[in-house]
Recover the amino acids of this structure.
């Protein structure tokens, strides 16, 4: 008989798994807490505890080793002493001269930049320049006492001065420590050494050198600023003189007369300080006035030229005309009186009439004189207007030409003004720096100088033990985690869901090869109970219950798929359903051995049907169960894949489904062959058989990808040959599990 060993599962595991999946989906749909999955917390403390128990020996060894290393290293370490000096760093130093912008003083630091300023001071304390100052101050390079106090051997060999200095500075850098508490201005400078007096001396020297370096840096920055500004001042003076000369030379060359002292900006200089522009404005005003006068003279002339001169306002307003008109009115009045008493030839009448004629002649003569005067005024106004307009036109051209020349002039003038402003600002700043040079106060003060420590700061046994314990726990956790990650075999039922992401339909316990047949025949055996649980899970594996066609396959050979196929078929047939079991493994068939034993006749079977050499009724075989029929593989064909992929296979399967309630197909393994994926495409469900502690997750996932690429429904997996008593599986929930044992006694 083919070697097929198996593994048990709890009876309700398949249905419970579906129910938990449905509950999890419903919980996610209604917004339940995602920290619970399948009715259990996503972080399972029990799983963690079982994992710890499974690796307890390794974890204990790692932690114990870490603690032992900590104890040994602590005992071997040289006692070290740490001295501390506390300094206060203010934002700015005292303003001795009362100048807030003195370059030799610290700038005023805003509240938001205080932390940045303090951190900058800490970085200066940590700089290489500070330890160089300390080394030079105490002459530490090549000092044998210093190397002994630091627990170091004095360097030997032909070392250069720079190499010896780097060696000493490295020791200083490793021994010092700078700490700045948050929301504090107190900086702590620590130094660690094997000699307590040297530790205190080094801490105090480092603080003193930091203060000295701060003052020296200010003085040097002020001297540098003075030298720099002095050079800039000379350069600015030369630029100012050059720009003034260029401005005057251009004005002389262009014939521009400008009074820049009147102007306060460039626009005023262009509009009001040019002689040509001023003349243009004056003549333009006179031209406008001449035009107004010409219009008025033209109106007077038109009035006196087109009408009766005696009716013109200019004539009537003349005093001579007014007196003549008065005299004429008087004479005419006297003439009317005489005509009323005398005839026309009366001497008085003739005389008065002659006087009226003389007065009329005088009026006409004066009117003509006034008319000629108005005409002369009109002509003069016209000539004046034309003359002024000609001058305006000429000056406009000159002004436009001057404006073209003023572009370069204004550029030169602005450059001269800019150079003058820069020169005056530099001159004022230079005077201030000279006044404040060398006068500064430190913003750093020592609060607590370092004193010689009494007790060593290291080694600290308790601290080392705690750190070793933590490191041991982390190392053990990392080891266990990596061990679990690299272990990709499927050993326990939980691995089916955790590593493969599949539903677990059943667990079949391990049995010896010779005991498998007897165990299947015994309905009370653990293997039979396992397959009964698998059968129950299949009955509720889909929404419509048991599928019509089920394919039983595995990723590798000899994982128990043939035994599983026979057990499932037998169990469902015992429920009274008509079941047909097919062996489509046309390369290494095994199903016929369950019926008649090794070497039995296998001359008729699936290959006979697929080659149209027989009918279904001819190849059907009876079994011990009345409702279970079996069709073996038949003779091994030369090309099984071509037979299974033909349309004849689909037609045969449809005919079998019409005659039986369930068709179970025992197929070849998935990997390396195309038979199983081809058959999976034409069935309603696939069951994947996984052997415990043999199958690799990579091969199983590759098998699942091949099956799902055919758009088939994978019902779940069956874990076979599971040894629940194996110590390697003790972290599983199935560890030490045994099915409820039947007994002839009446005890419960």
């Amino acid at each position: 008989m083919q070697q097929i060993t198996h593994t048990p599962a709890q009876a309700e595991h398949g249905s419970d798994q579906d129910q938990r999946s449905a509950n999890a989906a419903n919980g996610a749909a209604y917004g339940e807490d995602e920290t619970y999955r399948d009715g259990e917390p996503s972080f399972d403390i029990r799983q963690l505890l079982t994992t710890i128990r499974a690796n307890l020996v390794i974890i204990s060894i790692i932690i114990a080793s870490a603690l032992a290393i900590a104890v040994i290293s602590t005992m071997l370490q040289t006692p070290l002493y740490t001295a501390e000096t506390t300094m206060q760093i203010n934002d700015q130093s005292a303003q001795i001269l009362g100048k807030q912008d003195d370059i030799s003083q610290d700038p005023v630091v805003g509240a938001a930049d205080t932390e940045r300023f303090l951190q900058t001071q800490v970085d200066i304390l940590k700089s290489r320049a500070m330890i160089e100052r300390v080394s030079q101050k105490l002459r530490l390079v090549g000092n044998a006492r210093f190397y002994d106090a630091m627990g170091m051997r004095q360097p030997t060999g032909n070392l250069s001065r720079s190499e010896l200095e780097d060696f000493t500075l490295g020791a200083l850098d490793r021994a010092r420590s700078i700490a700045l508490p948050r929301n504090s201005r107190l900086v702590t400078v620590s130094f660690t050494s094997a000699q307590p007096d040297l530790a205190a001396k080094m801490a105090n020297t480092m603080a003193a050198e930091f203060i000295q370096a701060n003052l020296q840096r200010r003085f040097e920055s002020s001297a540098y600023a003075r030298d720099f500004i002095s050079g800039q001042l000379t350069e600015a003076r030369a630029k100012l003189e050059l720009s003034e000369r260029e401005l005057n030379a251009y004005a002389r060359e262009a014939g521009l007369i400008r009074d820049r002292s009147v102007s306060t900006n460039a626009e005023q200089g262009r509009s009001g300080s040019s002689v040509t522009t001023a003349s243009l404005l004056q003549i333009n005003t006179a031209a406008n006035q001449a035009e107004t006068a010409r219009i008025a003279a033209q109106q007077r002339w038109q009035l006196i030229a087109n009408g009766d001169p005696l009716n013109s306002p200019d004539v009537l307003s003349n005093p001579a005309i007014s007196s003549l008109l008065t005299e004429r009115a008087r004479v005419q009045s006297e003439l009317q009186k005489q005509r009323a008493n005398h005839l026309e030839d009366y001497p008085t009448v003739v005389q008065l009439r002659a006087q009226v004629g003389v007065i009329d002649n005088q009026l006409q003569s004066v009117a003509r004189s006034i008319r000629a005067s108005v005409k002369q005024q009109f002509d003069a106004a016209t000539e004046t207007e034309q003359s002024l307009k000609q001058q305006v036109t000429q000056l406009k051209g000159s002004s436009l030409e001057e404006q073209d020349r003023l572009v370069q002039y204004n550029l030169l003038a602005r450059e001269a003004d800019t150079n003058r402003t820069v020169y005056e600002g530099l001159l004022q700043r230079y005077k201030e720096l000279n006044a404040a040079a060398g006068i500064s106060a430190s913003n750093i003060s020592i609060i607590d100088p370092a004193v010689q420590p009494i007790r060593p700061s290291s080694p600290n046994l308790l601290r080392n033990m705690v750190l070793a314990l933590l490191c041991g726990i982390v190392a053990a956790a990392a080891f266990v985690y990596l061990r679990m990650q690299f272990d990709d075999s499927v050993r326990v039922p939980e691995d089916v869901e955790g590593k493969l992401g599949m539903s677990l339909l059943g667990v079949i316990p391990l049995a010896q090869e010779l005991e498998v047949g007897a165990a299947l025949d015994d309905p009370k055996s653990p293997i039979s109970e396992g397959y009964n649980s698998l059968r129950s899970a299949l009955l509720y594996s889909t929404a419509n219950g048991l599928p019509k066609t089920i394919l039983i396959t595995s990723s590798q050979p000899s994982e128990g798929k043939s035994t599983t196929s026979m057990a499932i078929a037998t169990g469902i047939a015992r429920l009274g359903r008509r079941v047909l079991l097919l062996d489509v493994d046309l390369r290494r068939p095994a199903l016929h051995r369950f019926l008649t034993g090794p070497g039995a006749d296998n001359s008729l079977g699936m290959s006979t049907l697929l080659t149209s050499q027989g009918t279904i009724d001819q190849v059907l075989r009876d079994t011990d169960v009345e409702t279970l029929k079996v069709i073996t593989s038949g003779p091994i064909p030369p090309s099984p894949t071509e037979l299974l992929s033909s349309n004849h296979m689909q037609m045969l399967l449809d005919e079998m489904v019409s005659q039986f309630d369930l068709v179970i197909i025992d197929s070849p393994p998935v990997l390396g062959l195309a038979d199983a994926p081809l058959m999976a495409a034409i069935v309603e469900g696939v069951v994947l058989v996984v052997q415990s502690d043999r199958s690799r997750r990579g091969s199983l996932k590759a098998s699942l990808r091949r099956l799902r690429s055919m758009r088939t429904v994978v019902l779940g997996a069956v874990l076979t040959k599971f040894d629940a008593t194996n110590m390697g599986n003790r972290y599983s929930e199935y560890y030490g599990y045994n099915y409820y044992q039947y007994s002839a006694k009446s005890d419960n």
Q: What stands out?
A: Residues 654 and 682 are 10 Å apart (CA to CA). The longest strand covers residues 81-89. Residues 1-40, 93-105, 262-272, 739-748 have pLDDT under 50 and may be disordered.
